[in-house]
Write a structure and sequence with these properties.
two-stranded antiparallel ribbon, 9% strand, 7 helices, mainly alpha
């Protein structure tokens, strides 16, 4: 499921009107996607607050103002990662484990502050662009499979 699909389904998910398989996939996306999870949490908290309020009447103007603020918060773009990132922030940004980032430090530009590794986001993004260009420069078409560890040899799958 992508972010656009999730955005279209999130209110139905809150209303519990989705088929089980779709609801499970949407819930997993909303809970794990860095772009969607903050807005999803806002909507869940709003739903809980409404349930807790029960049958207490709320003036229409107040209800509309509250819902407007909640929707605005749910639709905000996620904050950009900081320019100077820790290993865990880089791992989250790349959607990989911290150990994977540590293994790639031979290639990723980084520096140390007080013995702790830091990576400049702009340097990381330039490194990612170079990684994206490598298969094209080598004349490789289709997806690239890189094997890591042991006697593994990088290779390519025909597209």
């Amino acid at each position: 499921m992508n972010c656009s699909d999730f955005a279209a389904l999130r209110h139905d998910l809150l209303d519990d009107t989705l088929a089980d398989a779709v609801a499970r996939e949407a819930r997993e996306h909303g809970d794990s996607c860095p772009s969607c999870k903050d807005g999803w949490r806002v909507l869940q908290r709003a739903r809980e607050a409404l349930r807790e309020a029960g049958e207490q009447a709320l003036p229409l103007a107040v209800g509309l103002r509250v819902m407007g603020r909640l929707l605005a918060a749910a639709c905000q773009e996620p904050a950009a990662p900081p320019e100077i990132m820790t290993l865990s922030a880089v791992a989250e940004y790349l959607h990989v484990g911290e150990a994977t980032v540590r293994e790639a430090l031979e290639e990723i530009p980084h520096f140390a502050v007080g013995g702790e590794v830091r990576i400049r986001r702009s340097s990381l993004e330039r490194w990612m662009e170079r990684q994206e260009e490598r298969p094209a420069a080598l004349g490789i078409t289709g997806p690239v499979l890189t094997l890591v560890g042991g006697d593994a040899v990088p290779g390519a799958l025909a597209g």
